[in-house]
Each structure stands twice: as structure tokens, then as C-alpha cells.
Amino acid sequence: MEVSRTTKERVGLPVYRELRERLDEFPLGAPPHESLDEILAELFTPEEAAVAAHLPALPTPLPELASRLGMKPEPLQAVCEAMADKGLVFAAVRDGVPFYSLMPLVPGIFELQFMKAETTPRAMRLARLFNTYYYAGWGRSLTTTTTPWPRVVVVERQIPAGVEVLPYERVSELIRTARSLALTNCYCRHEANLLGEGCGAPLDVCMVFGRFADFCVERGFAWRVDVDGAMAALDRAEEAGLVHITDNCQQRLNFLCNCCGCCCGILRGITKLDRPTAVASSGYIVAHDKDECTACGVCVERCHVGAIEETDDGVRVDLDRCIGCGLCNLVCPTGALTMRRRDGVEPPPRTWRELQMRMLAEKAGRGGR
Ligand code: SF4
Ligand code: SF4
Ligand code: SF4
User: Fold this and answer.
1) Of ligand 2's atoms, which has the minimum distance to the CA of residue 326?
2) What's the DSSP call for residue 279?
3) In 10 A of CB 352, how many CB atoms?
4) 308 lines ligand 2 (CB under 6 A)
5) How far apart are the CA of 6 and the centre of ligand 1, in A?
6) Closest by alpha carbon to 249, among 210, 217, 299, 202?
């Protein structure tokens, strides 16, 4: 793997190992691999890595951080600001006081490296390194958690009439109730473009919400939209046949992605790593009416996770594989496909914090992996 000279010189420094171990403590972890060593040495200077390895996961006021790290606030702030500009550290200001926290590798550091859709040699190098890391075990750790961290949101107009719909199941509700909204580039498809493997689906349809949106806009990773702008992006995503995916919780969401099975780090868990539970179901499932089906095969192409296959006498739906996105219904010309409630789906954790705590407890139960 090609790495820059500076990165090569840094790779073996103990401070990067310490940082790697710190990142591995997050719910989705950061399993050891030489490609990750190179990624960290490329992203962080040794001085930044030494600070980052001691930053907490929750935003913490600068004076408290300075006292914990035994540093003066001004130089510590300068290092944290440099890392925030690079998308390595989260930053916010409350009542005039700066707060910082370390970003997890995912969701966080990885995404922010590709949101600006840069095409520099460094961006290409990072794309190759992250791709190597994904198939070296990181992809597995992202897609085999007991509770999945992302969940699918069904295409809203495909929700069957007469069923009780929970607010967190309506994509329009997620957008309308977001405290802050921004649009950004699909980092997975941009990474795939850099690798020469892009699928051509639209890039500018990923949404970020709340405090994370504010951070992304302030640091140039995303741009503001209003509700109408976000709904228009959603329409474009549905037209392009992309799967809505958000955090697997009910409130205080951070992102709403519009994903494809070929490039998306989440859906590739299903399509390339054979992890059918990489993402939580929308709570709905497809129903296929054979009598209405003309065996045109359009739905087979549309399903991103290979849940529909052609057979000698039409198509067959693998209900265990269906994630409930509702996209096949949009293209079926005869109405042979409809959505219905999926039985036995537990409501997701209430907040992002609850989701993280649950995933950490499950990880501890698996011996930390
Ligand atoms: S998760 Fe999906 S939409 Fe989000 S960046 Fe990846 S492919 Fe794009
Ligand atoms: S069959 Fe495929 S396209 Fe249709 S709802 Fe299920 S996952 Fe989505
Ligand atoms: S799109 Fe509709 S009609 Fe065509 S094969 Fe699929 S279910 Fe049958």
C-alpha cells in the first residue's frame, strides 16, 4: 500500500498505538490492522494523537480537559481546533465555553474525511487505506453488533393505510423535527469514486442533523438546508432508488443517509460480507402478490440487498433478507408488491446515548470485540 513519506516515518510511533486502543473502546471499535496504523499516522500528527488518545467520548469543557491532560488551555485548544478542522474531534461552544470530544472512527472520522468530496492524492490514499481496512476486519466489526447501529426507514408513501405508524418511522417527521439540518456528500460513494468503483448514484443527498449538523456546517463539511431543501434531496434519493438509513434510535438523530448496496459501508455488510443483520429493519416487510405479478423483473434490479430473485415462473422474495426499504414497490408496474408490518420488531432505543450504552454493554459481553 502506497503511503506518504511523512506517514511512513510516523507509523510505528507508540502514540498511534495508544490512539488506536482508545478508538477501539468505542462501541463499533477499531480492530488492529496495519492499514489502520497508516490511516491514523496520515490523519493525526504525533502531537494531535497524544492529545486525542486522552479525549473523552462526550463533549467536555476545555478547562476540564486542560486539567485532565495537565496542559495549558491555549495550546490544548489550538491542537483540538486543528483536529476539529480535519474532522477528527467534535467541537461545540456552549455559553462561550469550548467543548471537545474524540470522534469514533465510525460514525465520525471516516465519514468526515470524504464529505468534502476532495480528489487530492491524499484523499485517494485514504480511500485505498479505508477500503483495505474495511475488508481486513473493520467491516465485520461495523456490521456484526448485536444491536445494529443503523436502521432502515421505509419510503413513507409505501406505508400501508390503516396501520399505526410511529413518529420515528416517518422520514418526513425525522426531517421536520430536526433541530438543525444540513446536506452533505455521500462519503461512501465518494470513496468508491476515488477507487474508480463509483456507481453514479447522486452524491449530495446525505443529511446530518442537530449538533452534528452545526459542527459540519461550521467546519465546511456540509451546507445548510431548510426543510424544503431536505425534502427535495429525499425525493431525488428515492428517484435514484436509494435506501433511507438513519441512527437506530428514536430521537436526537445524527444522520439520514441514502444508500446503495454497492458502495455503502452499511449495506455492503449484507451484500459483500453476508451479514443480513448489518442494519435494523424498518419495521415493515414486503408482500408479493403472485397473481398480480407479470414477472417483468424490474424489482430484482431495484432491491439493493438481493432479497428478490428471478425464478422460472416469476420472482421470489427472501423475507429474511428484506430490510423493509419499500423501494421495490416504487417501480413495480402492477402493484404486486406492497408493504406490511413486520412482526416481532422491537422499538429502537430512545436516544443515541441509550443506543451507545446498549452497544457497549453487548460488546463487553462478547469480550470487548
Ligand atoms: S451510509 Fe449510505 S448514504 Fe451514507 S455515506 Fe454511506 S452510502 Fe452514502
Ligand atoms: S425486497 Fe428489497 S427493495 Fe423490496 S422492500 Fe425488501 S429490501 Fe427493499
Ligand atoms: S416489479 Fe412487480 S410485476 Fe415486475 S417482477 Fe417484480 S413484482 Fe412482478
Assistant:
1) 5
2) S
3) 20
4) yes
5) 30
6) 210
Atom of ligand 1 minimally distant from the CA of 187: 5
Angle, CA of 298, 303 and 305, to the nearest 5°: 150
Ligand nearest to the CA of 295: 3
Ligand 2 midpoint to CA 303 (Å): 5
Flag whether the ipTM exceeds 0.95: no
User: Is 324's C-beta closer than 6 angstroms to any atom of ligand 2?
Assistant: yes
All domains in the chain, ordered by first residue: 5-103 (1.10.10.10), 139-281+345-365 (no CATH), 284-341 (3.30.70.20)
Q: What string of pLDDT tens digits covers the 369 residues of the chain?
A: 445 557 778 888 999 999 999 999 999 999 999 999 999 999 999 999 999 999 999 999 999 999 999 999 999 999 999 999 999 999 999 999 999 999 999 999 999 999 999 999 999 999 999 999 999 999 998 998 999 999 999 999 999 999 889 999 999 999 999 999 999 999 999 999 999 999 999 999 999 999 999 999 999 999 999 999 999 999 999 999 999 999 999 998 999 999 999 999 999 999 999 998 899 999 999 999 999 999 999 999 999 999 999 999 899 999 999 999 999 999 999 999 999 999 999 999 999 999 999 999 999 988 767
Q: How far, in Å, is the centroid of ligand 3 from the Cα of 315?
A: 7
CA neighbor of 158 nearest in space, from 328, 294, 292, 304: 328
**Cβ 245 vs Cβ 252: under 8 Å:** no
